[in-house]
Amino acid sequence: MSNIYETLVERGIIAQCTNEEKVKEILNNSNVPFYIGFDPTADSLHIGHFVQIIVMMHMQRAGHKPIALVGGGTGKVGDPSGKTDMRKMLTDEDLAKNVAGLKSQLSRFLDFSDDKAMLVNNADWLLNLNYVDFLREIGVHFSVNRMLSAECFKQRLERGLNFIEFNYMLMQSYDFYRLFKDYGCVLEFGGDDQWSNIIGGVELVRRKEAKEVYGVTFSLLTTSDGVKMGKTVKGAVWLDKEKTPPYELYQYLRNVGDADVIKCLKLLTFVPIEEIREMETWTDSKINDAKVRLAYEVTKIIHGEEEADKAKSVAESLFGGNGISENMATTNVGDSLVDDEIGLLDMMLLAKLIPSKGEGRRLVQQGGVFINDVKVDAFDKKITKAELEQGLVLRKGKKTFHRFVL
Q: Which residues are catalytic?
């Protein structure tokens, strides 16, 4: 059998287990159904979800059966875990659109042929529940005192916890119970912020069925400072190429911090652990090679080899392969920022890329200005300090490249 448990541990994926020895035995010595849930808060997953996807891919390769649970039911409520405010309530139309988007994306990463994986929607059992029956059959097994001590509720109690959110733990626990009853699912995986919800499901199955099921949490995608990764000045880094083009995804990963690249290689790629250990010894400019490998591997998994090759080629033509071209014309705009930003046209004037703002407006309107290979469509665009810190290359027309730094 496989050593999938050891693989997940040495890559830093596993954070907590409800019964470590039993989980290790199950993962290494049998093939079982397991599930991970995805709430449809948007019509695309983002890079923060990619750890879940990689876990499912690792597990499926080891012979286990993934059940991808799309939360058409729980999405109507919203998970308070890790949130300081209540989630936005989605309409039925939004939910249906988002569920369809998630289903389409998940099928790119998992093999659903010949019953090797399943995709289910908890709306199938949650939306038709009788509330009184649910309270009698499920709610009776939950202690309010214990729920209030859970980390996911503690943070929200200070600011106000809505009763609809308080039900979320019961709903997610009921998901595990139903998946166990209907499909023999014995393992739930989730991010480390899901620990309380996962324990709720494990205990519900034990109380209702006198059977043991197990929960495993994995590390969240955070920087070395503990900040969740996956956000840029433009918003989330999406897995949908229309929302985040492959080149932007590539550049985002190419620009991760030196302290985060090894962790990201372990969590987000299938690069052999021996190679990653070798990269851990790299220092100074060599670390950039590890970042290039990270960006290429993740872009290849998400968008395919052709798009990864294209993104790498564009990056190398712009930046010379090491993130920043030594020969590219460069302008420092640090002294010109006002409230940590500078107007696009002011920046172009500073670099003498345009003779006047009128010429700059015309260029933008004709589609002739690109920032990091993304076309600029607003001549009044503001460039932020954060964008400049990440590395910004402006292209005018087809051949004029200019680097802006702080």
A: 41, 46, 49, 83, 87, 172, 193, 228, 231-232
